[in-house]
Amino acid sequence: MSNLTHSSAWRALAEHRDSIARTSIRELFARNRERVKRFSQEAAGVYVDYSRNLITDDTLALLTALARQAGVEERRRAMFAGERINVTEDRPVLHVALRERAGTPILVDGEDVVPKVSAVLARMRRFTDAVREGAWRGYTGRAITDVVNIGIGGSDLGPRMVCEALKPYGSKALTMHFVSNVDGADIAEVLQAADPETTLFVISSKTFTTRETLLNAHTARAWFLGSDAAEPAIAKHFVAVSTNADAVTAFGIDPGNMFEFWDWVGGRYSLWSAIGLPIALYVGMDAFETLLAGAHAMDRHFAEAPLEQNLPALLALIGIWHTNFFGAASHLIAPYDRYLHRLPAYLQQLDMESNGKSVTLCGERVDYATGPVIWGEPGTNGQHAFFQLLHQGSALIPADFIACMQPQHALDTHHKVLLANCFAQTEALMNGSHAPDAPHRSFDGNRPTNTICLEKLDPASLGALLALYEHKVFVQGVIWNINSFDQWGVELGKRLAVTIEDEIARPEPVSAHDSSTNGLINRFKARRNVHAESTD
Ligand code: F6P
Fold first, then answer.
1. Can you list the residues of the chain whose pLDDT is less than 70?
2. 210 lines ligand 1 (CB under 6 A)
């Protein structure tokens, strides 16, 4: 047994689970007509109703005791203080410093990083203003009309999701494109419609070594130089966002066209850094800084509120309740807002790359479940696809429903219907309905949900919403005693791909792998040859 599952707080929760499992969320509502008042809260403009979970005052007292026992408050302080809490990479974790706009010093190795952050933001402002105002021109003197961000993982998902979410605030003069996949179809689709005279490429990579990004960037560069453009024109059409100035220079981008960030910003926490350059190009620097301010407001709430009233901590603890005491293996994100359609994909990386770990900070294998599978689709589409399983399937799937009170359009009836569906689903999931003569028509109910409400999806509320999830993930990682800030699990596949790439390039068949891998590689090589001969 691990220290965690052996701890008094954990065992008390297991006992409590056995007693509360005999009741239902519906009964808890019947017992207390004011229940929602007790189990809902607003912070940084985000209202969360977490009353539709199988929790009582006792549950929350036990869960917050678990958080305290696990050292959540101490680790929260350590993160904000710039301590090296990413121990396997020996780095601080300071995405919160990127949103520290009050100028309060945050020290890394004795140096205040806030002025560095401000300096990059000022450069971003000069550059994005110039592009948006048409002062930054392409090599033939035409204004930029298209921006292509080339990046993957954290260098894609955040900026792409935010640009989609803030479309109503976006420039009408700029079309944004995001190329991430090494599948050539991704970049080919963008390049076939692009005009080299008016296209700006943003090459985004923290390391500037990621195979997918560099290959796509080289393809874009070759395409660009294959037009009438000569080498010096690259300076007008290629900028980079990275921590690796040497690799950026080696690629052929002038370091003067590089926007810097730092190794204390994790890839999946980096949209707040210069990785947010496409966002700033699209919505303008004022809106980008408002996004930062929204996140900062949630940071202050997370840093200052006691755990009992701390929204990220409460969502984390309720998630732990489901994952570790009720066996929930996945968590649904259901945004009832079309503009948030990339949010589930973004949260997949945030949560699953952070907490998809099974070794503790002490190097021991865990004997409890850690990060769940995160998945989702916007409502109401999901209702007509997979919600059947939520209502009547055998798996327990807790869900976050996200609703905006004000729409971004004038179609009021649509918005009423949309939110009516959102509220109806959570009611149905909780209450169920009993059809004594038709078991196939019975709904057990008792399916837990949170409903997260924004007044309107705007830069400030989006920033706060994303920071809410970041800190939720942090708290869960602390309780599970894992490092939420490394991602060693992605390395093995990357290494093997390099070997196989080399083997595919050679003429002889391979035999060094297992028979399945050999077979697939050799089949691909043979089929490529047949195809090459037939097209000769
Ligand atoms: O392979 C995973 C990963 O390292 C992510 O953590 C990261 O966001 C992504 O690749 C892209 O990395 P980079 O920004 O260095 O190209």
1. 535-536
2. yes
